[in-house]
């Protein structure tokens, strides 16, 4: 197998340091008993009020690291070797890009890369890889900061590979370059890492008794749909308001807690009336704005339904205190919620986010539980899911909403399908399940295949992408080579 080296600038008493640390903080790390891990970041923040530019990088924990001074010409000249200089923003993306100026005085992660590492970028097999966070969108101001800082540090953008779960990064980057007349040969590179796919796969294999049995698929159910809500992002509260307005809250399993995220809704009425759900940027045209607004009658229905929800305040299903699971990355829902309902309405994390596009663990939960689903998310999310081999349900209901790029129209399309499915009788659903069954079982078996063995797939794909020409589209690290 070809060799992959993970390169670090500094080594202390207890191992390698994170790359691209603010050099002002370096002396603080040379402490005899200080181990470099997540607690290190908290230690620096609490004691000195400054964050490192990067956090613990767990992506390469099983790959042998190498110090920058140990890279010989012999290793560099061997084209079977690939060298990666890893940087992790730890989700502090605006700090790492110098947009948040309080911590690093407008400096970016590229300002803290060692001179020797920058020189090694002249070699074809030496690249910088940035773990940008799983669900973080990348607006145009991020692209601007990337390209300006790279130019300032004399780093070719081709040498930068950005890992995230945003499958729109390549497309958004190309729009940015075209908009400002930048040569596409000087493009950043993007890798899509759907980490939750691997995690939920392992979870499905390890907890078989917590998921719906194939023998339980075809039976009469008490409720039509299941919609679980923890954080009530704008698209979720709009959809819930429509459900309340049309009296769908009682015959569906729906959870929410207005008080848990109360700060999000202080100006909800104003947001709806003044079209605050529309994100305008340099790429936005006036005609785009005009076709993106909800009609007056639709806004009336949203606000009337919202008043109903405010009076209800809370609907509990499996968890009463949402703060008890706040911050927990993944959890397995009560199997009875899926056994008692016919389909899931999955409200993804992103909807109105202009530069968003990701699949999270939310869409994988119904797959675990042999549950068909509608998706309330960014355009082409179903298409992305299908690129991993999963099947969806266009033979049973309209999934054209996935191709609708206008957010307001896409939300209405999803709602129309929801209403159609809600009006189906139990007999209709039982008959439909006879056709759905094979797809549901196929999807769960496919999910299981992305389990522990995927580490080897990631390793091979990463080397393959780094060896090939840059500016690649659809670079999925979990895709079978």
Question: How would you describe what is shown here?
Answer:
This protein is 38% helix and 12% strand. β9 (223-227), α10 (234-245) and β10 form a beta-alpha-beta unit. α10 packs across α13. The relative contact order is 0.11. By secondary structure, the chain is an alpha/beta fold. It folds into two domains: 3-193 and 453-467, no CATH class; 197-448, Rossmann fold (3-Layer(aba) Sandwich), CATH 3.40.50. The model has no long low-confidence stretch (mean pLDDT 87). The chain contains 19 helices and 14 strands.
- Main beta-sheet annotation: 6 strands, parallel
Radius of gyration using CA atoms only:
24 Å
**CATH fold name of the largest domain, please?**
Rossmann fold
- Helical percentage: 25-40%
Distance between the termini: 14 Å
Low-pLDDT residue spans: none
Q: Count the beta strands.
A: 14
Mean pLDDT rating: 87
Shape: globular
CATH class of the largest domain: Alpha Beta
Number of domains: 2
